[in-house]
């Protein structure tokens, strides 16, 4: 493919340029705020080494005049695919990137490159949350967003809920003490309850399923445990008011009994799963 060193002279609205590699100054590239891809440290280090050797695939960009003509900036292109490559280049004090032009509007580009990156990489749940909430602001329902991005409505709703996580819980996530799935369990609760349940999850090393069971147990008064069962009486409110959002912590004895019941439930489910897999 021919290399062109003067992209500013091109008629960027002409789609015939999309298969031509351009050398574009990084200063002219805008990072896409809705790119949901993430990369672990090891993979990023390997990628950075390839960028250092100039051995990387061209990144894909769209002219801002096409992507979003209302966006006022000195940038000329927005990155559709290649944010990590560009970040590596910046850290290596490189000034230009090899680029392919894919002249898409924002409406076209967001689902197309989300699906592409979702197949080849790992998505960041919080970036997904920003993307789906942006789509919601455009008037789309969770069901419409799910169809547009090839996902389930449940996945979209869980991701949208991450915006409700309080800063205290986010710190635990950043420290690696909670997973994003733990956060999705907590997202429907008030800040006070998020803090309490997140502390319990960390202190007791609860799985996502165990945390969900503990959360449910806060809302109803458990019956006498029979063989570790987690059955509860839904008619009795238990130290928790959904209406006013207050929480009174469990006693240590109550907490111990609940955790034993949770673990027994998980063990029973694992045993049943094992029996099914063996054809029992």
What does this molecule look like?
A hairpin with a 4-residue loop joins strand 11 and strand 12 (246-247). The strands form four sheets. Strands 1-2-7-5-6-3 form a six-stranded mixed beta sheet. Helix 5 (125-137) packs across helix 7. The chain is elongated. With 280 residues, it is α/β, with parallel strands linked by helices. Among the domains are: 3-106, Alpha-Beta Complex (Conserved hypothetical protein from pyrococcus furiosus pfu- 392566-001, ParB domain), CATH 3.90.1530.10; 188-277, no CATH class. Helices cover 48% and strands 15% of the residues.
Summarize the structure.
This protein is an alpha/beta fold. It is 48% helix and 15% strand.
Helix content: 40-55%
**Highest CATH level, the class of the domain at 3-106:** Alpha Beta
What radius of gyration results from the CA coordinates? 25 Å
Number of strands: 12
**Beta-strand percentage range:** 15-25%
**Class by alpha and beta content:** alpha/beta
**H/E series, N to C?**
EEEEHEHEHEHEHHHHHHHEEEEH
| Biggest β-sheet strands, sense, barrel | 6 strands, mixed
Nearest-integer average pLDDT: 79
Report the span from N to C terminus: 60 Å
For this structure, the CATH topology of the domain at 3-106 is Conserved hypothetical protein from pyrococcus furiosus pfu- 392566-001, ParB domain
CATH architecture of the domain at 3-106: Alpha-Beta Complex
Low-confidence stretches: 1-17, 221-247
Q: Give the name of the CATH superfamily of the domain at 3-106.
A: Conserved hypothetical protein from pyrococcus furiosus pfu- 392566-001, ParB domain
Shape: elongated
Number of helices: 12
For the biggest β-sheet, the strand order reads 1-2-7-5-6-3
């Amino acid at each position: 493919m021919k290399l062109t060193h003067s992209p500013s002279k091109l008629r960027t609205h002409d789609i015939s340029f999309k298969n031509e590699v351009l050398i574009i100054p990084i200063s002219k590239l805008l990072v896409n705020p809705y790119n949901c891809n993430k990369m672990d440290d090891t993979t990023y280090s390997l990628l950075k080494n390839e960028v250092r050797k100039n051995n990387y695939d061209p990144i894909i960009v769209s002219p801002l005049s096409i992507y979003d003509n209302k966006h006022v900036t000195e940038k000329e292109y927005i990155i559709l695919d290649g944010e990590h490559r560009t970040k590596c280049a910046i850290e290596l004090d490189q000034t230009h990137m090899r680029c392919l032009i894919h002249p898409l509007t924002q409406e076209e580009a967001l689902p197309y490159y989300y699906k592409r990156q979702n197949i080849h990489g790992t998505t960041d749940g919080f970036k997904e949350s920003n993307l789906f909430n942006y789509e919601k602001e455009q008037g789309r329902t969770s069901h419409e967003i799910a169809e547009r991005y090839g996902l389930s409505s449940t996945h979209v709703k869980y991701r949208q809920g991450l915006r409700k996580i309080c800063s205290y819980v986010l710190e635990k996530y950043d420290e690696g003490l909670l997973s994003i799935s733990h956060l999705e369990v907590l997202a429907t609760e008030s800040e006070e309850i998020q803090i309490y349940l997140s502390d319990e999850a960390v202190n007791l090393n609860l799985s996502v399923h165990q945390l969900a069971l503990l959360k449910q147990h806060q809302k109803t008064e458990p019956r006498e445990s029979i063989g570790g069962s987690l059955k509860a009486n839904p008619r009795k409110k238990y130290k928790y008011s959904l209406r006013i959002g207050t929480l009174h912590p469990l006693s240590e004895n109550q907490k111990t009994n609940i955790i034993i019941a949770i673990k027994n439930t998980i063990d029973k489910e694992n045993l049943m799963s094992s029996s099914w897999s063996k054809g029992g």
